[in-house]
Design brief:
Length: 174
Amino acid sequence: MASAWKGTKPKTGGVRFGPESHEVGTANHVHFEEKLHDSVVMVTQEEDGSFLVKVGFLKISHKYEIMFLLPAIQSLGREACSAPIPNLYLKVVDVAPVPEGHQVKCEYIAHKEGVIREELVLTSQIDDNPSVKVTLHARVLDRLHGTPMLLEGVKCVGTELEYDSEQSDWQGFD
């Protein structure tokens, strides 16, 4: 009888566990780093010199304060500021020099569902030429998918609800 799995070898091996301890008071422990890598806003520099800021999951119609640290950027110097942005949903509140670079604080209103990419530009207050593009990247959940756990550096500061009163789940008291 011919094998239907022609050319394959049976898998050998398996899962191996460390030596078991049967002594009383001995237990296996899982250790986590003090701060998990995935629990903070991630800032990465792209090949073109721009920055990508991953802010995680947000919820539709909510307003967020987002803070992140950009490393020192030689071309901007210590005195960086935000270039005016023609964006109704993203506003840079503050750009402050810190020993590690620049602390950026902005506000964002999650106005559409799905993956969003919003851009802002930082410029030098001293020289007109240098500028650095910063792209915020997030996934915005609809109102039916619960409340996302926010990353460190992201804080919900309110809602921008635009619900029709007839569509609301609120029934009130009769």
